Amino acid sequence: MAEGFWELFAVACAEEPGRVYARFDGAPITFADLDRMSGAVAAGLAARGVARGDRVAVMLRNSPGALALIFGLARAGMVWVPVNAALRGEGLRHVLTHCDPRALVVEAESLDRVRECGAALAGVTTLDTGELDTLLKGDARHEAPPPAPSGTFAIMYTSGTTGPAKGVIVTHRMLRLAGEGALLVAAARDGDVLFVWEPLYHIGGAQLIVLPLRRRVTLAMVGRFSAGRFWEEVRAEGATHIHFLGGILQILLKQPPGPLDRAHGARIAWGGGCPPDIWRPFEERFGMQIRECYGMTEASSFTTFNDSGVVGSVGRPVSWLRVAVLDEHGAPVPPGARGEITVRATDPGALTPGYFRNPAATARTLRDGALHTGDSGSFDAEGNLYFHGRMTDSVRVRGENVSAWEVEHVAATHPAVEDCAMIGVAADVGEGEIKLFVQPRAGAALDLAELSAWLAARLAPYQTPRYLAVVREFERTPSQRIMKHRLPATRDDGFDRLAAR
């Protein structure tokens, strides 16, 4: 298995053109549909001067056209640069300036945001969704040699939860392996229907386009994640699988009980980020099996997967990767001890070649043939990996390193808290203090003094946040992770535990 994913698509289009690849809001999209539309859009871009190897920034929400455009870029050997459709201002300017695109495809209603962000786009061919739709309806065909597995398929900008996004170079081979990993985690089989809410401009959504090429499965796509409509949509689509990232499971678990809790028809919830304390409650309430994994875009999305059901573990490595947990000197730590998760490839195409136009970040992350993830992890005696959060997502308080992951997972269990995020702020004396932002549940009364006391009873003194602040809603990345670098590090906008004594 040394090829990318395009070969699989070409074979399926030739052998089963009438098979349904996906449904979007219930409307079917066949392989023949995708073949025609992708060929037409590739030909249309080529006619506008976009050549093989050129970068095309795509700022679209999920739609049949967005899906066809991805396959069109792949068949033409053009480089897809997915851009978060909600980006604006400096974040949007950074991505559009840094990727230096030859063309930009953007929703018509987002054109003003693009113009106002300050990116220098003189000479960039720009198509809005109306022009894209015209291309998609054409009958032109783009014929070109198939892309090389090692060729660049996409430049995917990381979520940027703590700083400017970096452009991860994703090869055609890497996306193929991402799809293979998704099949392992999801345990998908012929006839399954996978519910897709994830934006295609995030690796969590992009990796799914490979699944119907490897199994006779169908993607049931919707425009966006909606907690209130989630189970209705799952049932209407006849979905057998749901995918989770970030805080999706917590959000679903905190919805009011309803008649569809056990009548939705899905059997597997698969993805990354299930806290151990809600693993069994989620399975019991919704009658589903949790299948957890761990990974990064830089390592073809999937590094480990849990098919044993060990609660809290992210499992064991996929066959094309090896994982070690190392101390600060680069030596393996014993079972139970924490260190940095590092990844090596047994398949030479499994790791990213680096970050686009960022040699310093590439050198920091890819060292001695290994991907240094910056994530904290540990192995148990049986070789199961456990994820303990980002090593940099911590605050040093009175000589102790406090992991945001540990504090947030405790705070999120409070009955009045919908979601939360921890950051470090300046201390009057010493290294730092903890500030916790909390989003109350709808209709819940949240008393910050009471919450502070509740946390103090469940966390060590050095882990207990000094400052608490309420937010109505968090600004999030496409994978629903909270954008912590947008949270204010002020100390006078909420509750101060020490001042309240």
Describe it.
It is a single chain. The protein has 501 residues and is of the alpha/beta class. Among the domains are: 142 residues, Rossmann fold (3-Layer(aba) Sandwich); 101 residues, 2-Layer Sandwich (GMP Synthetase, Chain A, domain 3). It is 27% helix and 25% strand. It has 15 helices and 26 strands. The strands form seven sheets. The chain has a five-stranded mixed beta sheet, with helices on both faces. Strands 16, 17, 18, 19 and 20 form a five-stranded antiparallel beta sheet that branches. A hairpin with a 2-residue loop joins strand 18 and strand 19. The protein is globular, with a radius of gyration of 23 Å. The mean pLDDT is 93.
Helix content: 25-40%
**How many DSSP helices?**
15
Proportion of strand residues: 15-25%
**Which CATH class of the domain at 30-171 applies here?**
Alpha Beta
Structural class category = alpha/beta
Which stretches are low in confidence, meaning pLDDT under 50 for 5 or more residues running? none
Alpha-carbon distance between the two ends? 64 Å
Rg is: 23 Å
Which overall shape is indicated by the principal axes computed on the Cα atoms? Answer: globular
Query: Can you tell me the CATH architecture of the domain at 30-171?
Result: 3-Layer(aba) Sandwich
Task: Please state the average pLDDT score.
Answer: 93
Total E-strand runs: 26
Outline of the structure:
It is built from 15 helices and 26 strands.
Write the layout of secondary structure elements.
Elements: H1 6-15, E1 20-24, E2 27-30, H2 31-47, E3 55-59, H3 64-76, E4 79-82, H4 89-99, E5 103-106, H5 111-116, E6 125-128, H6 129-136, E7 152-157, E8 167-171, H7 172-186, E9 193-196, H8 203-206, H9 211-214, E10 218-221, H10 230-237, E11 241-244, H11 248-253, E12 268-271, H12 276-286, E13 289-294, E14 304-305, E15 316-317, E16 321-326, E17 339-345, H13 359-365, E18 366-367, E19 370-379, E20 385-390, E21 394-397, E22 400-403, H14 404-411, E23 417-425, E24 433-440, H15 448-456, E25 467-470, E26 495-496
Parallel strand pairs: 1-10, 3-4, 3-5, 5-6, 9-10, 11-12, 12-13, 24-25
Antiparallel strand pairs: 1-2, 7-8, 13-14, 14-15, 16-17, 17-19, 18-19, 19-20, 21-22, 23-24, 25-26
Helix pairs in contact: 1-2, 2-3
